[in-house]
Specification:
heterodimer; A: mainly alpha; 18 helices; 1% strand; B: 335 residues; two-stranded antiparallel sheet
Chain lengths: 353, 335
């Protein structure tokens, strides 16, 4: 049963298995385990980013191509839903239409970018995607009639998902069963299903070909696989899942704007999560995203304590300033690329072996 | 040269079409704009922007050509150059605020020199610590240099604070020259002069000196140069440091051009720089020059003619050029 769900790709490390199970349980029971809006926000963000990072890992870890345009697809999903619900009524039909249009745009764009630049070196693709993504971010902030510009779009969701909605009159185990809870479980279940689908993909024959391309594209080509086609399909697939992740995030926030989806800083975050968690292992996305998002929200409090404690020593308080937490993750990122390129997951598996 | 003339290899013909394209675009823009004074102002602005981008991009494209290394953290040198210039200009704020041109020069020269030196030293450090361990591994290069960029940007925040810093131009460089009814900003003219000087110096260095010969040979065929007994590693470090120093200079000038500096200046410029070196053909200095001019001119013309699509003009330009020449304007033989 579990084997089928995980597509035969077991954690292969006891520590990893325990960690994954703990994360799954925590996320599944988050509204009941961690009361409070902030904790639920963090849990929802973890769900979305696990999915987003896993879809990026399909490109970076499994196919060996570096894209800087992943946030663009993330944003297309968010804007798709936001624009559809504000232009039409906030109904499920409008959301479905928004998703469909967003998916179509993402697929066409990723197909064109792939066709254009995946024939040549990885570096070329990285540079092109960087340029296109920055163009798209500028476009989104300029076309303010459509996208709300820098302010973004705050939109209404269907009745069922609104915070004011109550499913049960009485709180269940001390938690109000209402729109927020339903939205959270929508995000959680959708993210879980899509993650399992990605796991299925990378463990299919198609996924094996991607691995072959990553290891030695020349040889894969010689074996008769059209590497450009496989790469392009992987690119489109990653873009589609990123779009859906954007949809989920927008539904959770009931807002879409450049800062929550298109910002280059988010692209950097995704890179950090993938590499620190472990490239080429879907489970790395789970660990990376969880650690990163939790750190993003709670590490700053710790750093503030440390920074206050270090007062008087030159430079140290600045280095430990809560806003500088990305510095330390950056250092961790560089070190992990050098010393454990398979990330936390790879390291855990290596210890077991 | 006289004795060797008979046996000299035939000179490679210079492909003039891309250069003609620059002129054609300028002429077409003239026809569309219609007013000579506006056109001259825009052209000078475009050339200034293009040449500044060229200063920043030339090192990156050479490093790629020579060692197949793509440094995604090149923007870091730009940012550091700009920030060093800010600090130096503050130090010499008296001289920068003075009325006399010489006193101003006394402020701007140390700022530029300091930007060059600091960026160059940082380049030396960066090459040794970040780039050297990942030779020949493209994926890791992209990741590690991006990581270096993150750390460096945060360190700039630590050292200079997270806020936007003003970088005022010295008094003598403010305002514009008026020739008839044509206004030309003084600073843009300075940028054009410096940019052209550096371009000429680079061309002379590459075509008329032994080091330049080795660099060109290395771009063409690295193994062969090594087989002849030259240490291409040292050459590469030198080119990397020089590229970083030029980026620092470009960053300082760009900061003055915009009159303010933020830590994201590097990341912002990287996008333009990538577009320029893709247009020019990865590894080609001449292509980088033509590409930078194209990007600068087109950005300014389109910005005037139809501001709506100005922001996308660079991408459109890149797409059109790649449709015409998929490897860039001056493709290098290796690819």
């Amino acid at each position: 049963m579990i084997d089928t769900l995980l597509s035969g790709d077991r954690p292969r490390s006891r520590v990893l298995a325990v960690a994954l199970a703990a994360i799954l349980v925590c996320l599944a029971a988050a509204p009941f385990l961690f009361p409070g809006t902030r904790a639920l926000d963090v849990a929802a963000k973890v769900c979305v980013f696990v999915l987003l990072v896993a879809s990026y890992d399909l490109l970076l870890g499994y196919t060996g191509i570096v894209s800087f345009a992943h946030t663009m697809f993330f944003g297309i999903g968010g804007y798709g839903v936001a624009i559809a619900t504000t232009r039409l009524d906030p109904t499920w039909g409008a959301i479905a239409l928004g998703i469909a249009v967003a998916l179509a745009i993402s697929l066409v764009l990723s197909f064109l970018i792939g066709l254009f630049s995946l024939r040549v070196k990885a570096i070329f693709f990285a540079m092109i995607t960087l340029a296109v993504a920055s163009f798209f971010a500028i476009l989104a902030s300029q076309l303010s009639d459509l996208t709300g510009g820098e302010d973004g779009i705050t939109f209404k969701v269907p009745e069922l998902l609104r915070p004011g909605f109550r499913l049960l009159e009485e709180p269940l185990l001390g938690v109000t069963v209402g729109g927020r809870l339903i939205t959270y479980y929508l995000v959680f279940v959708a993210a879980l299903l899509l993650f399992l689908a990605l796991l299925r993909t990378v463990n299919s024959p198609f996924g094996r070909v991607l691995l072959a391309i990553r290891e030695n594209d020349f040889r894969a080509e010689a074996l008769g696989y059209r590497t450009v086609i496989y790469r392009t399909i992987a690119n489109c697939l990653g873009a589609a899942v990123a779009t859906l992740a954007g949809v989920l995030y927008a539904l959770w926030l009931r807002y879409t704007g450049p800062n929550t989806t298109l910002d280059f800083a988010i692209m950097i975050d995704i890179l950090l999560m993938v590499v620190i968690g472990g490239m080429g292992t879907m489970y790395g996305a789970v660990l990376g995203a969880t650690i990163f998002v939790v750190a993003q929200n709670y590490l700053q409090d710790l750093m503030k304590l440390a920074s206050d404690a270090a007062k008087g020593i030159p430079l140290l308080p600045d280095l430990l300033h809560p806003d500088r937490w990305l510095l330390w993750f950056g250092v961790l990122f560089v070190l992990s690329v050098y010393y454990f390129p398979r990330g936390i997951v790879g390291q855990l598996r290596a210890w077991r072996a | 040269m006289s004795a060797a003339d008979d046996t000299a290899l035939p000179q490679a013909r210079i492909d003039l079409i891309p250069i003609a394209l620059v002129g054609a675009i300028a002429l077409a823009a003239f026809a569309m704009i219609g007013s000579a004074s506006t056109w001259v102002t825009l052209t000078v602005a475009g050339l200034a922007m293009g040449l500044l981008i060229f200063i920043m991009a030339s090192g990156l494209t050479l490093v790629f050509g020579l060692m197949d290394v793509m440094n995604f953290a090149h923007g870091l040198f730009i940012a550091i150059g700009a920030y060093v210039a800010v600090s130096m200009m503050r130090l010499f704020s008296g001289a920068a605020g003075a009325e006399s041109f010489l006193a101003n020069l006394g402020a701007i020269a140390p700022a530029l020199v300091a930007a060059i030196i600091v960026a160059g030293l940082l380049g030396l450090f960066f090459e040794r610590v970040i780039i050297r361990p990942v030779y020949g591994q493209h994926l890791k290069q992209i990741l590690i240099t991006t990581g270096g960029m993150i750390v460096a940007e945060q360190l700039i925040h630590v050292l200079w604070g997270p806020d936007l810093l003003p970088l005022p131009r010295p008094t003598a460089l403010r305002g514009s020259f008026l020739v008839g009814d044509i206004a030309v900003e003084k600073f843009r003219l300075i940028a054009v002069v410096i940019g052209l000087a550096i371009f000429v110096a680079l061309i002379v260095l590459l075509n008329r000196t032994k080091i330049g010969l080795l660099i060109r040979a290395g771009v063409e065929n690295k193994e062969m140069v090594e087989a002849m007994g030259y240490r291409i590693r040292r050459l590469f470090v030198a080119v990397f440091v020089a590229g970083a120093a030029l980026a620092g200079l470009g960053g300082a000038l760009w900061g003055m051009y915009q009159e303010s500096v933020t830590a994201s200046i590097g990341a912002q410029m990287m996008v333009l720089i990538f577009i320029v070196i893709i247009i020019g053909g990865l590894g080609s200095v001449g292509g980088c020059f033509v590409g930078a001019l194209l990007v600068g001119l087109v950005a300014n013309y389109v910005g005037y003619l139809s501001p709506k699509i100005a922001l996308g003009s660079n991408i459109l330009l890149m797409v059109m050029i790649l449709l015409w020449r998929p490897q860039g304007l001056y493709p290098m033989s290796k690819q």
